[in-house]
Amino acid sequence: RALSAAVASGDKITDDAAAVEALGLKPLVVPGSTDNIKITHESDLGLAERIIEQQASTAGVSP
Q: Which of 20, 22, 30, 52 has its CA 20 to 30 A from that of 9?
C-alpha cells in the first residue's frame, strides 16, 4: 500500500521506510547487524565481498 501510494503521488522513494513516511507514518526500526548492507551500487559489492571474507575467516571456512 505504501509503495503504491508513493508511486501515485510522484514522491521520490528510495526505500520501504521512505514509502511509509510518505504516508505520514513512522516506520518501525529494529536492531540489526551492521553487516546486513543494502547493495545499491556496483561499488557496494566490494564491501559485501570484504564482509563475506571476514565472516568466513572468523568461521574458519573459505568463502
A: 30
